[in-house]
Amino acid sequence: MNTAGPDxxxxxxxxxxxxxPPHPAPTRVGPAAAPAxxxxxxxxxxxxxxxxLRQVIHHLK
Length: 61
Known about the structure:
The chain is of the alpha+beta class. It is about 45% helix and about 15% strand. The protein is built from three helices and three strands; from the N terminus they run E-H-H-E-E-H. It has helices at about 5-10, 15-20, 45-60, and strands at about 5, 25-30, 35-40. Strands 1-3-2 form a three-stranded antiparallel sheet. Strand 2 (about 25-30) and strand 3 form a beta hairpin. The longest helix is centred in the last third of the chain and has 14 residues, at about 45-60. The radius of gyration is 11 Å and the shape is globular.
């Protein structure tokens, strides 16, 4: 999961989902009324990317 869909963004709140925890800032994608957020975490070959994914998931919950 590198992209959080509009339902996840809406549940977390756009401002919170875009806030910068210790991972790269997300990029908005999709319509402004229901944006999704793409978090660039790499291609999955770097073990550190998995830690970044866990941080994103924790941040959005």
